[in-house]
Amino acid sequence: MNADSFILQNEKLPVIMENMLQKIKETAAFLLSKGFQAPETGVVLGTGLGAFVQKMDIEFTIPYHEIPHFPVATVEFHKGQLLYGNVHGVKVIAMQGRFHYYEGYSMQQITFPIRVMKEMGVKYLLLSNAAGGMNPLYKKGDMVLINDHINMLPENPLRGLNDPGFGNRFVDMCRPYDEAMAQVLIKAAHTVQKELLHGVYVSVQGPNLETRAEYRYLRASGADMVGMSTVPEVIVANHIELRCAAVSVITDECDPDNLTPVNIAEIIEVAGRADDSLSTIFATAIQMLK
C-alpha cells in the first residue's frame, strides 16, 4: 500500500464509523416504531435452542430480512427472526438465530444487533450456544455457565472503531461475564433442580469441526468447551457496558482418543433435550434480575 492509498483509507474511517452509528440509530428507531418499546433484557438463542420463545408472551415477531441494516441468518437451523414480548412481566427481545463469522459476515455485522439492543435500552444480555465438550467431566446435555473465554477468531469486532460514540476502544476484559448475573443464573437453576457447571469457552472460526490434534491443543490452552459464536457478542457487550452472561449446552463429547464422526442432526437433537431446562432457567433469571 502506497502513502496515498493509506491516507485515503484512513480518511474513509470516520465516514464508515459515522454511517454505522447512524445505522444503529435507524434500526433501533424502526424497531421502536414497530412496538418494541422499553425492552429490559436481550436474549440470543444458539443452535437448537429455541424453546425459550414458549416462555414468552410474544407481542411482535419480525424476520431479520425486514429489519433495516440487519444481516440475514443463513444457517438452516436458525429461524432468523426477532421476537418481542413479556417474560414474567419483563419486556424481552429475543434473537431466534444468531450470525457467525463462518457465514461470511464481518464481526461488526455479527454484533450489530447487540449494539441495537443497547441503543433501545436493554440492560441485561443472556446468550446461549451449543458447544463441544473437551473437559472429560462434561457429558452430552450438560449446561455450562461460561466464566471466561479464549478468542481464537481471526477478527475482532472492535477493530477500527475509535469513535467515542462506540465506547472505550481499549476494553478491559478481566471479567467479561457479569458475576452478579452468573449468581442469578445459578440460583435460577437451583429453583428448577438443575445444575450449571462452570467452564472456559473457546471460540473458533468454523464451520468445520476440529481434528483430534486441534482438540488436544484447545484443551491444553485451558478451554473446557469449543464453539463458533458468543465471544464477539460478549466483547461488544463489554465495549458498550451491557451486562452479560452466557450458558453453553454440551452437544458432543470431544475426546481425541475416542473421536468419532459428528452427526449434526444429533447435535441439534441433544441441544433440544436440554432446551426446555435452559429456557426455564433463563426465564426464571429474567424475573430475578428485574
UniProtKB/TrEMBL annotation:
This is Purine nucleoside phosphorylase. It comes from Sediminibacterium goheungense. Pathway: Purine metabolism; purine nucleoside salvage. InterPro entries: Nucleoside_phosphorylase_d (IPR000845), Nucleoside_phosphorylase_sf (IPR035994), Pur_Nuc_Pase_Ino/Guo-sp (IPR011270), Purine_phosphorylase (IPR011268), Purine_phosphorylase-2_CS (IPR018099). Keywords: Glycosyltransferase, Transferase. Its EC number is 2.4.2.1. The purine nucleoside phosphorylases catalyze the phosphorolytic breakdown of the N-glycosidic bond in the beta-(deoxy)ribonucleoside molecules, with the formation of the corresponding free purine bases and pentose-1-phosphate. Residues 42-286 form the Nucleoside phosphorylase domain. It holds the Pfam family PNP_UDP_1. GO terms for biological process: nucleoside metabolic process.
